[in-house]
Amino acid sequence: MAISFKDTTGIYESALSLRSKRSEVLAGNLANADTPNYKARDFDFHSALNASMATPNASGGHMRVTHQNHYQMNGGSPLGGELEYRIPTQPSIDGNTVEEQVEHAAFMENTLEHQAAFTMLNSRFKGLKAAIKGE
């Protein structure tokens, strides 16, 4: 009987990947906090996770492009789609929409949820290891 890692890891593999990509986006916002006219970006994690679990491409399948106007999956942004702009509560005079306290809070929340997903994935692998050893 073969073990499917997709069935074993469940949603946590996709969650870790998306959490890492969201960390990059949020870190980019923080790095550009003083850049004039920089627009803060983000994406809805839950929508992206649902989309990644629903698409055949996320599970290793391949999509066939049958027309030149078809969109390519996973192209352009980390999510295969467009990142959204964050709407500031207090826009700055120079056009920058990064609010450091909001970005720090989002980054820390994302970090905690990344660690939680990693812990759950790690416990799954420990369970597999114990089952293989017969413990």
TrEMBL record:
The basal body constitutes a major portion of the flagellar organelle and consists of a number of rings mounted on a central rod. Belongs to the flagella basal body rod proteins family. The keyword Lyase does not apply. Coiled coil: none annotated. GO terms for biological process: bacterial-type flagellum-dependent swarming motility. It comes from Marinagarivorans cellulosilyticus. Residues 13-39 form the Flagellar basal body rod protein N-terminal domain. Structural component of flagellum, the bacterial motility apparatus. Part of the rod structure of flagellar basal body. It is found in: Bacterial flagellum basal body. Keywords: Bacterial flagellum, Cell projection, Cilium, Flagellum. This is Flagellar basal body rod protein FlgB. GO terms for cellular component: bacterial-type flagellum basal body, rod.
